[in-house]
Request: fold
Amino acid sequence: DAGVTQSPTHLIKTRGQQVTLRCSPKSGHDTVSWYQQALGQGPQFIFQYYEEEERQRGNFPDRFSGHQFPNYSSELNVNALLLGDSALYLCASSLGDRDVYSPLHFGNGTRLTVT
Amino acid sequence: QKEVEQNSGPLSVPEGAIASLNCTYSDRGSQSFFWYRQYSGKSPELIMFIYSNGDKEDGRFTAQLNKASQYVSLLIRDSQPSDSATYLCAVKDPNNNDMRFGAGTRLTVKP
Reply:
């Protein structure tokens, strides 16, 4: 039973560039959430995708965008990178966007460094 | 802004002791509460969830929930050095169904 997979593992980008991160959810899951985790902080919610639509969004600028594909996999895009975007980006999957009891299962994350 | 608050620690306990981790949340309508463990450089791993007031036990772990006080705790009995990690408290927003995390408590278990 494949868990949540993310790629790439590490990424180094320059300020102003654009980046795309990818995620495949755990088998059987249909909802994907993205989080940003800065060093020493808890994960901060970016957005959630269900049925190929963005259902919820946290307090992140429009530079952060995403997509969900028919096979439930997802991408996170960040434009015009800033130094402050350096963080661990976590993808989490769950079953159903309305199931308040469904836990999140996390991938191993993508470590993004912006120089 | 709906908050989840944790003491950042670090919390240090000797091997074999009970570690007590605490969390408060601001949204009184919250219904589901989760504890995640995160080793340094790794992703969060689900260890416990609780929905009803009272205690829930799973091996050496006990989660406690008091909705009236908006308080969740995690007890780790017979703490082991391998329990040394950051413990994240998470609460699902009942309106939006997204999960909000506290900043985490760093636990060190000393041999």
Observations:
- Chain B touches chain A at residues 4, 6, 31-32, 34, 36, 42-46, 49, 51, 88, 90, 92, 94, 96-104 (CB under 8 Å).
